[in-house]
Amino acid sequence: MSALAFLAPLFLLGLGFLVWPVLVHLVQKDRKEVVEFPSLMFLERVPYKSSRRQKIRHWLLLLMRLAALTVLIAAFARPFMDRDDIALGGTTVAREVVILVDRSYSMDYGDRWADALAGARAAVRQLGPEDRASLVFFSAGATLAVRSTTDRTVLFAALDTVEPGAGGTRFGPALDLARTVLEQSSLPGRHAVMISDFQRAGWDGDEGARLPPGTTVDPVVVSGPYEGDLAVGQLLFQRSFRDGLERVETTARLVNSGDREIEDVEVVLELDGRPVGSAAATLGPNATTLVTLPPFTLSEPFMRGSVRVPGDALPANDVANFVLSPGEGFSVLVVEDGSDPREPSLYLDQALAIGTDPAFDVDGTTVGAMTAGDLDGRSVVILNGSRPPRGGVGTRLREFVEDGGGLVVILGERSSWPADGPDLLPGPPGPVMEPEWREGRGGTLGRIDYTHPVFALFAAPRSGDLTDATFFRYRNVELAGAEGVLARFDNGAVALAERQVGEGRVLLWTSMLDNYWNDMVLQPIFLPFAHQLVKHAGSFRPPTPSYTVDDVLNLSGQGEGGEGNRLLAGLALEDREGLVALSPANRSIEVGGGARPGFLPLSEQGFYELRDGGGGGGPGTPAVAVNVNLGEADLEAMDPEEFAGSITSPDVGEAGAIGAELGPEDRERRQGIWWYLLVAAFLLLALETIVSNYLSRKAASQPWEGSAASS
What is the Cα–Cα distance from 58 to 106, expressed in whole angstroms? Predict the structure, then answer.
């Protein structure tokens, strides 16, 4: 529906005065000039009478004058069309337009990126003369590249320089940014153009991101034929120690998401950019497989490696990067009494020797031969049935624990703890106990804290039953309270207790780990139990071979910053003020300052180097590897219309959704009809002047006719 309305309708009263020119023409009298003649002064005066009526001879001139006046009056009345369709879709309504372009790495598949840029340029060309446009590029995060401009050259320039990134797709941040721009705009129209492949994995509908009411959404889908994708997934590393060298065996998980079998694909292992080994694999349709690559020796810290497959239509996930350093295994020192002929550490040594996550580097000694230097570089010390060291070595042991080291004390027959020994245990060890449990068949573990890291592995069904082990002997330990008790025997005696000492921790196990005091070493649960016990004592955090794009690396030394501290250990920085990171694209990033000092956002795929501001890099430079998120390779798309409906208000698209917000002043100002009326009035007056001059010249050439008629 539409109707003609006027912003100043009182000016229309001037139309009533248009009859005045007509009346002037009709009642105008001929002017008679009286000439006095002296000879006629004595004659009788006779009044002059004219019987001929006035008439309009030049109708064209009169109509043109009346039309010019009518148009002029209408212009001053400020007319506008009160139409909903103009408010919603017409070009006369100025709009705030936000163009959102998906630059996640899935957009690099085939021709999708070229199609996305073409769609964005088309949206810019369709902008109205008074529209303002913003340009948002997004993947897992969103960037406002251009904000609220009418200059199309700026928008085109931004589109000419952008490329697909390495991040995954998340629609929520982009919509939040678009909502901010639209809500802060003073223009009456609101419009969003979403250009994406609309991956279902990027939207779960629960982000709460919505555009302002009255916003119209134009989804532009970029897609094409999908021929499948081969990707390098998770990398697994198994470390082992041979002849003092640390060896690493790499296993790569390959994913084929296509409908065709891939035969004899070559998988290449690279170290510092050089191929060092390869293996072949065959993958069925929509299948995964594991490929084991030749082992290599870790010869220097922060060794960079990559696993590659031949390139395809989605090259970002054809490589997986990693960074490994020697010595990231667990160094364990096992201390015995030295007088026990039964090899009390036999089972424990064998259990730790086959550990791979981490690889345990185990050394043994006796308490009499132990020196303070034996503690250097250790993660955990195990006193296996031994008394503690005394003197300076005992003092060094306490310092070792206070500085973050781990101590596992396994009580046996010779595990006396003298009064002058280091104060480390949760409680003093008591006598050896041999109670008659279960009619002489021994006892079991009765109360276990399955929420603790040592036992959490056994909490799941079919993960091993700790109560299967039978215990015949243990040493009684009296604790002041129940705090720190992790497990008890079924008679209530303490089996495992923990104490925090400084930055480190002490674990006290009250029964020997051999086949004489118990049969736990013969149970399937012994191997994982021994590993969990030692790892927890040493506060083991597995080194991170790689991160994912859009992760944030904590280098602040606060919170979970253990990995950052490991990376900074080779830089010898007194503080983090001079810390600089070099991105894979050779961008220098100041880590020590900025908005979030000590935090490094990882937005690119490849290797980030950490430098002290003046360092040069090269082999041994602290570095982190960054890989793409494999979830982005799932190109399953959602319905774009359904997506558009989920991010807008229910009344979007109904007539008047935006027009209801426009007042008469806005409508009249946006349409500008008065300007066209003024131009029309000027043209009519100019044309009337031309016609009038023509008729005047014609009347001058025929005076007898001009004197006999009225205009």
Answer: 76
Banded model confidence at residue 280, pLDDT cuts 50, 70, 90: very high
Render pLDDT for 654-701 as a digit per residue (tens, 0 to 9): 333 333 345 677 666 666 787 788 888 888 888 878 877 877 777 777
- Residue 497's DSSP bridge partners are 485, 508
Q: Is the pLDDT of residue 27 over 90?
A: no
List the Cα angle 352/353/358 in 5-degree steps.
Answer: 65
Domain for residue 337, yes or no? no
Dump pLDDT digits (tens) for 344-396.
888 998 888 886 667 788 889 998 899 999 998 888 999 998 889 888 898 99
Mark whether 133 and 259 lie in a shared domain: no
Supply 604's token pair: 């690119």
For residue 272, being part of any structural domain is answered with yes
Could you please report the per-residue DSSP string of 123-190? HHHT--TT-EEEEEEESSSEEEEEEEE--HHHHHHHHHH----S----HHHHHHHHHHHHHT--SSEE
CATH of the domain at 114: 3.40.50.410
CA distance 57 to 66: 15
Q: How far apart are CA 71 and CA 77, in angstroms?
A: 10
Whether residues 55 and 111 fall in one domain: no
Taking Cα atoms as reference points, which of 664, 675, 682, 676 lies closest to residue 80? 664
**Which of 493, 512, 537 is the C-terminal boundary of a domain?**
537
131 & 190 share domain: yes
Q: Which domain holds residue 115?
A: 94-226+637-661
Cis peptide upstream of residue 435 (ω within 30 degrees of 0): no
In tens, the pLDDT along 210-264 reads 888 889 999 999 987 888 889 999 998 888 777 667 788 999 999 998 888 888 9
Same domain? For 211 and 106 the reply is yes
Give the chain's domain count: 5
Question: 218 and 284, same structural domain?
Answer: no
**What size, in residues, is the chain?**
711
Is 302:325 a contact under the CB 8 Å cutoff?
yes
Shared domain check, 238 and 218 = no
User: Is 105 a domain residue?
Assistant: yes
- Tell me, what amino acid is at 705? E
Give the pLDDT of residue 88.
40
